[in-house]
Amino acid sequence: MSHRPAAPSASSRRTLLRTALTGAALTAGSWAWDLPAASATPLVNEKPRPATPAAALRELNAGNRRWRTHHERHPHETLAVRREMLSGQHPFAVVLGCIDSRVAPELVFDQGLGDLLTVRSAGEVLDEAVLGSVAYGVLELGIPLVVVLGHQSCGAVSAAVHAEQTGERLPAHIQYIADQIKPAIDHAHEGAARIDATVSAQVRRVRSQLAAEPDLATMIRAGRLAIVGARYELTSQLVHPVD
Q1: Do 102 and 234 form a contact (C-beta atoms < 8 A)?
Q2: DSSP assignment of 60-75
Q3: Which residues pair with 151 in a beta bridge?
Q4: Among 36, 28, 6, 32, which Cα is nearest to 18's?
Q5: Which of 53, 66, 147, 155 has its CA 20 to 30 A from that of 163?
Q6: Which of 94, 82, 97, 89 is nearest to 39 (CA)?
Q7: Which long-range contacts (CB under 8 A, 24 or more apart) does 41-50 make?
Q8: Are 205 and 180 in contact, with CB atoms under 8 Å apart?
């Protein structure tokens, strides 16, 4: 008579889940996030991972400067780096951005494999899955910087402004996106200026919502985390802060 394997315990299931999410190996019962590459020879293009909010922000600023001046390095794409990534991931920044195909964070910040944890939703809209993804990067991977990245000519913001002005009901689940952006609509402006102002207002709103999350707020107070707002200009390829 065959026997069905025993179901894994709750603790085992959590361990399996965390292993699947991080790609990290288990060594002697502890997470091997900080293990070196399998080779004893350091990688040629290896450099220290930014470990503070300020250092992470400097790296992103430098990468965007390379991008907009056409001096991209396309870092961390070699075969050696790809093999190193098998042992785990060590991203230094979370970028919460829009789904717009013209605003790919790894490109506009000139970063490579394993550098950024990117979370994308139309108009940077927050829901439980997005919040959990950001929190995972900060609390589980120890990432010191979160960037909420809006962008010029955001279609999700345009749709939200249009829906409010006309009363038109948007199709399928797109109305949900518009409803989430609606509180950020800037009524001090008209026409295209309203859309542009709302892009920045939505960044500020989402940044504030993230900063108010208790676990993240604790890390901000301790100086271990910064959450900043920024926007990307399609016309100039510049990423600049949104205060």
Answers
A1: yes
A2: HHHHHHHHHTT-----
A3: 232
A4: 32
A5: 147
A6: 82
A7: 43/78, 43/80, 43/81, 43/84, 44/78, 44/80, 45/75, 45/76, 45/78, 45/81, 49/90, 49/92, 50/92, 50/93, 50/144, 50/145
A8: no
Q: What is the pLDDT along the chain (243 residues), one digit of tens a residue?
A: 444 445 555 455 444 445 444 443 322 332 222 323 333 333 444 568 899 999 999 999 999 999 999 999 999 988 988 998 899 899 999 999 999 999 999 999 999 999 999 999 999 999 999 999 999 999 999 999 999 999 999 999 999 999 999 999 999 999 999 999 999 999 999 999 999 999 999 999 999 999 999 999 999 999 999 999 999 999 999 999 999
CB of 56 within 8 A of CB of 115? no
